[in-house]
Amino acid sequence: MSIFNKFPRTFWVANxxxxxxxxAWYGFFMLFANYLTGSSDMGGLExxxxxxxxxxGVGTGILYFLPVLTGAIADRYGYRKVLAIAFVIYAxxxxxxxxxxxxxxxxxxxxxxxxxxxxFKPIISATIAKTTTQETSSIGFxxxxxxxxxxxxxxxxxxxxxxxxxxxxxxxxAAIILVNFILxxxxxxxxxxxxxxxxxxxxxxxQTAEGDSPIDTTDMPSENMSLLKSFNLIFRNMxxxxxxxxxxxxxLIVAGFWTMYMQLFFTLPVFITQWVDTSALFRFFETYIPFxxxxxxxxxxxxxxxxxxxxxxxxxxxxQIAVSTLVMRWKPLxxxxxxxxxxxxxxxxxLFSQNVLFTMxxxxxxxxxxxxxxxxxxxxxxxxxxxDKKALYMGYSFIPVFLGNFLAGIISGxxxxxMSDKVMITKLFVAEKGLRIxxxxxxxxxxxxxxxxxxxSARELTDLLWNTYNPSSMWIxxxxxxxxxxxxxxxxxxxxxxxx
Length: 500
Known about the structure:
The chain contains 24 helices and no strands. By secondary structure, it is mainly alpha-helical.
């Protein structure tokens, strides 16, 4: 019997829900960095790189911290109910996003959207863990990761078609997320009977002694009493990871991987937009697939940065099953080490050159490392998690992603702004040359005016700034983070092996 026949129906329904959720998410998220920092004449908000880093780093970090709480809530109150609430928040947040434009308002709206994602994430991960076995887990999580990337690929491909009206990016994502309300009708909670609490909740209730809540609940309704006890238990369980130093160290190490990995979304689209010459790719598509050059080009001879970055998802769709099959017999830690190192080299190289063909090869290297290492993180935690607390422990798996996003925001914000941001480098060039530029210009208009005053084309000025100020030096920072993480994981693995 084929291994694919060993997966229950709920496994496939959950994967399909994940596909559409990721479609909606990446449909806006891949474009988000350039939306925040882009020139106003192109629909961007013209926030600084540091402001972008705060919004994306802190906001996405919170998104990945909240599953520590929401996983336990889902265990208690039911996966289907929490999924429905998540989709309502998703859809309303996407619909409201185009109405805000100030830094504070955008930040608050992104936190609201993050709440919906935080409610969603641990449920699907737990469903995959509960519907796979020791035999099928590697392929199962590989399929799951492939579904993630199918959604991640089609999301930007669709929304980029509407980039002329930036608000449509969010409306399209809102429409896609509504599909999951239909799929939810076919979702059956694994290991859970209707109208009853699952085993993990029953066990948890028994472990919560009567009257041990520090809050006076005498006059509260019984439903509120139950909720307070549930949150009390959540924080107890959160504290329990500090009783396992080895697991805590593992989570901290993996945070380094996510710091490096998130540059794919936080930094690379901006870097490509500002520095990479995509004309060779444009000419290829103009010759052989004119539909692409016509619809994924913001200007003649230029390809959308998000279209180029999206090759990562395309590579994973094509190669994930093959890579998962190759590493399925590897120990998760060994696969992670190999994947993290390859991933680090690939991401560093994406920031190394102005040649788009070089960038695409670097993204391929990055994707291979990502496929080998990233799914194994979830698989590793899924294996060691108690069977009756899968969602709770999957919530723990998001802790390093929370830390990684926060640190990635710093790297893509203040660090990128000081080392590689084209806007800041252009202003430095203007100051050094003593040029006078009128106020009130958009970022693009400002750059073009500088080019005019020094008698250069926009491309020639970009090359001059590249050769003079060396913005590609960011690759050293990214590579250092990835290599350090790999070395730490190697030491961790050796220490664990010696204690067995």
